[in-house]
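[Meeting: bench + compute handoff]

Bench side (C.D.) handed over the final construct sequence. Compute side (W.E.) agreed to return the predicted structure before the next meeting so the bench team could plan truncations. Sequence as handed over:
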Amino acid sequence: MTFRSLSMRLLALLLLALQAGCATPESAASNTEDIAAATRVSLAHFAASRGMQPALLVVPEASAVIIFPHVVSAAFVVGGSEAEGLLFVRDRDTCHWVGPVFYSLSQGSIGFQAGLSKAELLIVVNSPAALRSIAKGHPRLGIDVSVALGGGGSASSAITADIDSYALEKGLFAGIALDGSTLRIRPDLNAAWYGRPVTLDDIVVSRVVSSPDAGRLAAAVEALAP
C-alpha cells in the first residue's frame, strides 16, 4: 500500500468517525426513511427487470430476503463504508412477509464486474438455517454462510448456496461476488424506525412492534412473487 492510499484510507475512516459522533435521533430517523424509500424503488426495479426473473421465481420459497438499494464499489475500495438495507422474513405458516429489519453490508472482498460502480442488490436467504446464522450474529458471507451469484438462466440455477445474490446496475442484471463481506444488524436504525430499542425477535417473531410504513414495505416484497 502506498503512502497516498494509506493517507486516503485514514482520512476516510476519520470522516466516518466524525459523522458517527454527530449522529442524532432525528438524523437516524431521516436515514431510515431514505432507506425505506430507496428500497421501494429497488423492489419496483426488480419486479420490472427481465434479468431478475430467476430471483423472483425463488422468492416465494425463500426464508428471507435482504434488499440493499445502493451498493457502491468506491465506498468499499476506500474502506470503512457500509451499504444499508432491509431484511424481510417469510412467515412459513401464512406465507406473508414480516419486517423490516435494518441491516448493513460491510466491507469485504466485494468483486464488482468490470465497469460496475454501483448496484441494487437483492439477497435471497434460501433456508431457515441460513436465516438463523444471519439472526444470531454478524455472519461473514462465504465463510459462515455460503453465498453464490444467483443464476440468470432458470430458477433451479439460483438455489446453489445458503444465500444467493442478485444485482441490477442501471436496470440490467449484474454480478457482485460478496465473499468476505459481513451482514450486521443495525440496532440504531431499528430503534429510530420503531421508536424504541428492539430486537430482531421483537420485529419478526413476537411482532410486538410495527410502524405505519412496515406493512406497505412487506406488501411490496410480497408483490415480487409471480
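W.E. noted at the follow-up: The chain has one domain: 25-222. C.D. will use this when planning the next construct.
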